Amino acid sequence: MIKVSVVGAKGRMGGNVVGAVNDAADTELALALDAGDDLTRITPENTDVVVEFTVPSVSLDNVLTLIGQGVDVVVGTTGWTDEKLDQVRTALASAPREDQAVFIAPNFAISAVLTDYFAGIAAKYFESAEVVEMHHPNKVDAPSGTAIHTAHTIAEARKAAGLAPVPDATETDGGSRGQVVDGIHVHAVRLRGLNAHEEVLLGNPGEQLVIRSDCFDRGSFMPGVLLAVRNVSSHPGLTIGLDNFLSL
Amino acid sequence: MIKVSVVGAKGRMGGNVVGAVNDAADTELALALDAGDDLTRITPENTDVVVEFTVPSVSLDNVLTLIGQGVDVVVGTTGWTDEKLDQVRTALASAPREDQAVFIAPNFAISAVLTDYFAGIAAKYFESAEVVEMHHPNKVDAPSGTAIHTAHTIAEARKAAGLAPVPDATETDGGSRGQVVDGIHVHAVRLRGLNAHEEVLLGNPGEQLVIRSDCFDRGSFMPGVLLAVRNVSSHPGLTIGLDNFLSL
Amino acid sequence: MIKVSVVGAKGRMGGNVVGAVNDAADTELALALDAGDDLTRITPENTDVVVEFTVPSVSLDNVLTLIGQGVDVVVGTTGWTDEKLDQVRTALASAPREDQAVFIAPNFAISAVLTDYFAGIAAKYFESAEVVEMHHPNKVDAPSGTAIHTAHTIAEARKAAGLAPVPDATETDGGSRGQVVDGIHVHAVRLRGLNAHEEVLLGNPGEQLVIRSDCFDRGSFMPGVLLAVRNVSSHPGLTIGLDNFLSL
Amino acid sequence: MIKVSVVGAKGRMGGNVVGAVNDAADTELALALDAGDDLTRITPENTDVVVEFTVPSVSLDNVLTLIGQGVDVVVGTTGWTDEKLDQVRTALASAPREDQAVFIAPNFAISAVLTDYFAGIAAKYFESAEVVEMHHPNKVDAPSGTAIHTAHTIAEARKAAGLAPVPDATETDGGSRGQVVDGIHVHAVRLRGLNAHEEVLLGNPGEQLVIRSDCFDRGSFMPGVLLAVRNVSSHPGLTIGLDNFLSL
């Protein structure tokens, strides 16, 4: 039984994590803390793994405190810069336990992680590739960080394989061809009713491969969070990306 | 039996029309002419309907000549301006036969015509609407004329229903949100292997309606061409758009 | 302001209706009743329209009582047989008010209603047609009532147009071709993560038309429920199907 | 420059291979033979690799003859039984050249091969999985061999991971749930206008992963045939499946 504490337990994601930890057969809830609570109540005695789902402005401080407490941490909060990640690495180097672990995932949805991974494998076999992401209309950034990441994944695979640029005879366009990320066209749709979806289109003469991830709600993150909770402690140091915990 | 002559019979579309006319049970091929052939060989004696599939630079002259010959004409060539259309109307006004007919279609694919028509009906019931068109990478214009037309169809339906603008909280975007046509975002994908495809996405809280047309090859135009051949003569004057021949 | 009472207010659907009625600008909540409550508290003085969302075993009795109270009723409960509908018609014939109205909808999702309606229009123009419905794996009936309805809609349109049966050279099949409803093949997918989705595929040589409805959650029914609330009173007698309230 | 002979050159697939071999920069056409032609004209002097695209009734004899001629063979003909494969292995054991190679692929479309491969990787991470294949209505077998193969791939991955059977509460069904292959439901759609398409649907709470292959025409096989032509000679013995030549 893995003892799991949740930081940000009153937030929408954190609340879902509390439920998922309670429901899973191999995890049990230790402490459920939120803003204002004392994080030093979390110790190796009551907690194996902490799940931190708060906001970018406080997440780094939380993680540094939790490292100091000697517990392993799974981080779901976004907004991590290289500088912040370096601070985490430094803190881990002088952590109480030698094999202490922190895991950060830009996206916990297994379908999204696999879409990115499969796009990277398939890209070198196709002449064309484009990315279409679709989200609810309240999202403020476009395209999504996940779509940008996938575009880079595709672009790197194409470069490694020595592929020519994607074919495109477009002469006149008023903006419909989307944003070009590292040579790959990325399109963002905003539609009421949708949540978070990504589609990778790969084309050859006479054939198309489509890889699509649909995240219908926050519940889509829970299998990935639990996967991280189960695997973080066997991966000492800082690990970034759920693909590290999948057998790919 | 409808006697059909084809002008532009050696072109890719015209060649397909010749085959479709030969295959259909209620049509028979009269004359198959191409560049350099004398169009005045086509007369009411040998021909009921002419299908003209050539290039924009010669199509107007062909149509005016054919009107003068006293036959009905189905035009598949694109590039028609308001000025050119007026010349056709003028010619029809003094045509040999009183009930003579010319039909021009921007798109002969029934799936594409219905997608546009359905989008217009559905648009007023949905908070969000976007258009994604997908074509082969040799296409020079983006977005497609059909997608622009569909965006206008949606926009007009929304205005008539008094809908607010589509919701969109996007604050930062490098171009991924596509081209805004009359308030509707239009995206163009270019992918080897595809031919001509259009997808209309309509969203409400908790639901989505998707209407999609796939034109896999030139054969997709033939049912629409035959529909026009069968209906043109009962619609005297100039008719534009295949929706006029569908029972909608 | 339309005064709306809700019967079944503690159920999952009823609870959503209460929220939708509170949120909409032109409706206000009158009474929210549930099992055990006295329905005769609902009167023309406090209520314009009642929304009934309970279970098939009690819905008929509820509706008959509400008709006797002299109010208009929108029914979301399923399980209506011809016999039950006749009882409603009889009750309406001797209702307190002459123009009293009851509305029953098999499906309140506008995207689902339009998918069915568009399938009926498009069917006569396509050689092939099949229906694929996709639901969560807790659903006990397959295929869905909506998919069966759509298959009948398509079949009737094909018959009216004199179309031949759909082409199908299948010689060996172990069940993969699905259930044949009135000549139309219907397939049912059950997948964790999905809610209620239907896809109509229509095919001609070289082209395909796809019409798809995605109902991601119960919220997808609310725009349709509000549409019914706003329209029921101007349609005296028994009306079945949301398409009657759409301008189609 | 790889010297390629084609057996079955007048067939539809063989004709496409001749074109692809002529078009590619690193291959040149040696002999183009068809039924009635003497296969012993093909020798190591004029040919590096033979592509055999004929019919099941003659393919084994052709391959055995070609092995005897001392050339490497890429086989696109279907209908290979274990017994036939054993005859190929036996012939290879006493072939003129020690490192002689034969390659047989059930499917040359890279998108189809990757769909099957990705389904195998992803299957263990999802609670639900179903397969939908879609083909032209002239196909006599349902479901397709490729879909059956994918169902087995998914089933084996689930078993290896110790997953429970897919959830399915269906109580009443008239056949819409499709054919159950090794515990996985497989659906077959037949639609005019389509060619060969396969969709794998994988579901978890709140999320879906879709992997789809579209083979629009015979041209979709050519990149795979060329990949095989380039790789067969470095894989002595009998190799089955294009995945062996992909860097997966």
TrEMBL record, chains A, B, C, D:
Its main location: cytoplasm. Pfam families: DapB_C (PF05173), DapB_N (PF01113). It catalyses: (S)-2,3,4,5-tetrahydrodipicolinate + NADP(+) + H2O = (2S,4S)-4-hydroxy-2,3,4,5-tetrahydrodipicolinate + NADPH + H(+); (S)-2,3,4,5-tetrahydrodipicolinate + NAD(+) + H2O = (2S,4S)-4-hydroxy-2,3,4,5-tetrahydrodipicolinate + NADH + H(+). The active site is at 135 (proton donor/acceptor), 139 (proton donor). HAMAP family: DapB. Homotetramer. This is 4-hydroxy-tetrahydrodipicolinate reductase. It comes from Bifidobacterium primatium.
